[in-house]
Amino acid sequence: MDAEKYDKNSSTLSRMLRIGVLSNAIVWVCSIIALIFIMQNSSSEKGLFPILAGGLGVALMLVSIVQKQRNSVDS
Hints:
Blueprint: H1 2-39, H2 49-74
Helix pairs in contact: 1-2
């Protein structure tokens, strides 16, 4: 019975983690798109691109880690 409860709790936490990671990646993508629109009027914001691209890179790495963890648990 405890194993069932642990599996259910683990899958719920894994699902919440996937949702959080994917929403984080979406926020970074939206911020880069917003930066592109802002840069059409003024080019002084070009310095923000490396920061936003770095954040997107970390978000995509987290998506990859969560997917690998999910696949190893399912196997």
